[in-house]
Amino acid sequence: MPTTSPISIGIGVLGYAGIAKAHLNALKKLPYIFWPSPVRFRLLGIGGRSLHGVEDAARRYGFEYGTTEWRRLTDDPRVGLFINCAPNDAHAEPCLAAAAHGKHLLCEKPLARDAREARRMWEGVQRSRIRHQVSYNYRFVPAVRLAREMIQAGDLGEIIHFRTRYTDDTLSDPATPHTWRQEKRRAGSGAVGDIASHVLDLARFLVGELKGVAGLSRIVVPRRPVAPGSRQTKPVDVEDVYAGVLEFTNRAMGTLEVSTFCLGRKNSLTFEVNGRRGSLCFNLERLNELEVFRAEPRGRRDRGFKTILVTDEDHPYGGAWWPPGHILGWEHAFVHQLSHLVKAIVGQEAVAPLAADFHDGYVNAVLCDALLEAAKRGKYVRLKPPQRRTDGNTA
Ligand SMILES: NC(=O)c1ccc[n+]([C@@H]2O[C@H](COP(=O)([O-])OP(=O)(O)OC[C@H]3O[C@@H](n4cnc5c(N)ncnc54)[C@H](O)[C@@H]3O)[C@@H](O)[C@H]2O)c1
């Protein structure tokens, strides 16, 4: 039974379409699934560009108001947590304004359009005593957390390889209309910031910091219609696909492939880690499972990869939802990441290293810029080691 009454946190959410739905679902579920909850959410304002859209979203999700002015959310003194689910060009100013008013932050990835903007955001939040988290939600998939725990416990021994691929077919059809994602001014980059940023975050989360990168990129469809069926087109000025090579500071080597032109692939995120004593394999389409291979003494004939169903009570987040074997889905990671953030807010605990904070968002943006530079110059790009953090957001 709860010994203290839950703290009320006023919520402002920018964006109601796309990924916002996963955050809105998490806001609804967290207080009753993670019981007794340390918080009660007061859903105050939801923002976006269309008046009809925000008013409809406010009714649908139970917010007190909808607004097309993001400043109404960042200025609202009752908002304690600001969740930014807007496109990449609307991350920096609203987040910095909210931080200046002392609001805690959960911002969608990539934190910013480039490393310069991300650095400004990281420096901005350091001036206020807030908790800041970037929505790298795959860190909160139980099998991914188990992979990290096994690697950190030394189960795999020295890591030799990290191999990752994040592919879908969302842009395979040249008739698919142009959106903010194909515009450098709004998105910062294409496949790199949009999907490579996720697997770069996992590379750091699982294996460690990067020392250098190299790679190739390509724009596959250089112009797209401005609207479905339109003959009028707009140029695409960001990369559609990227293939890269990663070098870690611990000498591990990595490869990365990201593309939205892989027919038949939907949200296919995979990684494999090979160490001297074993290997791990993860596939988002089977996200409850982790494949584990341990080098066994010679003579055992049942050697091979084993599939671990990561739903037992002693697995990460085990027992929080359902009994063992009652599997979870993609959306549960958003509940986990929100739970992590509110615990940090209530207990004044660190957000990192289990969640990505704005410093991680900045380091990620440095990596994305380096991948783009490597492809542009056709050269290996060496990275400086990330600076130490100085705020209370890291344990
Ligand atoms: N974590 C993930 O797995 C994941 C998945 C998809 C998208 N994202 C990220 O989420 C963000 C939004 O992507 P999406 O796919 O939901 O986009 P979207 O285009 O589907 O939705 C964007 C929302 O922001 C609002 N908006 C648009 N321009 C705005 C502006 N200038 N000011 C204020 N609000 C504005 C729109 O009204 C809409 O509600 C991006 O940063 C994207 O990279 C993350």
Task: Give a short synopsis of this structure.
The chain has 395 residues and is α/β, with parallel strands linked by helices. It has helices at 20-33, 51-61, 70-75, 92-100, 115-126, 142-152, 184-187, 191-206, 332-346, 358-377; strands at 7-14, 39-47, 65-67, 79-84, 104-108, 132-135, 159-167, 210-218, 223-225, 233-235, 241-248, 253-259, 268-275, 278-283, 289-294, 306-309, 381-382. 30% of the residues lie in helices and 25% in strands.
Chain-wise SSE layout:
Layout: E1 7-14, H1 20-33, E2 39-47, H2 51-61, E3 65-67, H3 70-75, E4 79-84, H4 92-100, E5 104-108, H5 115-126, E6 132-135, H6 142-152, E7 159-167, H7 184-187, H8 191-206, E8 210-218, E9 223-225, E10 233-235, E11 241-248, E12 253-259, E13 268-275, E14 278-283, E15 289-294, E16 306-309, H9 332-346, H10 358-377, E17 381-382
Parallel strand pairs: 1-2, 1-4, 2-3, 4-5, 5-6, 7-12
Antiparallel strand pairs: 7-13, 8-11, 8-17, 9-10, 11-12, 13-14, 14-15, 15-16
Helix pairs in contact: 1-9, 4-5, 5-10, 8-10
The protein binds nicotinamide-adenine-dinucleotide.
Question: What is Rg?
Answer: 21 Å
Unreliable stretches covering 5 or more consecutive residues = none
Bound molecules: nicotinamide-adenine-dinucleotide
Succession of helices and strands = EHEHEHEHEHEHEHHEEEEEEEEEHHE
Residues in helices, as a percent range: 25-40%
Number of strands: 17
Strand order of the largest sheet: 16-15-14-13-7-12-11-8-17
